[in-house]
Please model this.
Amino acid sequence: MGSTTKMTNNIIFYDGYCVVCSRFIRFLIKIDRKKIYSFANISSKISDKILKNKMDGDQIGKSIVLYSGDKIYKKSDAVIKIFTGFGGLFRIFNLLQIFPRVLRDSFYDLFANYRYRLFGKYDKCDVPSKEIVDRFIYD
Model:
């Protein structure tokens, strides 16, 4: 069941209770044919281990986070970096950087604040299927 020792340079941390976040991760898995990303719940032990010293504690869990090459990307920067990491036509996401981060992140925060009300929340953390469980880190 998922990796407990696997480390990667590209870990996407997400809210496993959030319906939208979990579906977004499933979408990423479908388009990530080269398996460049691994995934971990933002409330996992590995999240504490990696993010605790790199982010303010009150920010952890409020947005998607990409840990890549010992750097932390969050909110809109994480989304842009994730998609451009696929290469090809996904590089078009770089165009979003023409908008100031404060503007991009304001829209991100607005959506994040209402995601549970609009789309719901799982009672327990979403569990990946057998076919994709190897892409998740639990430790």
Summary: Strands lie at 10-14, 38-41, 65-68, 71-74.
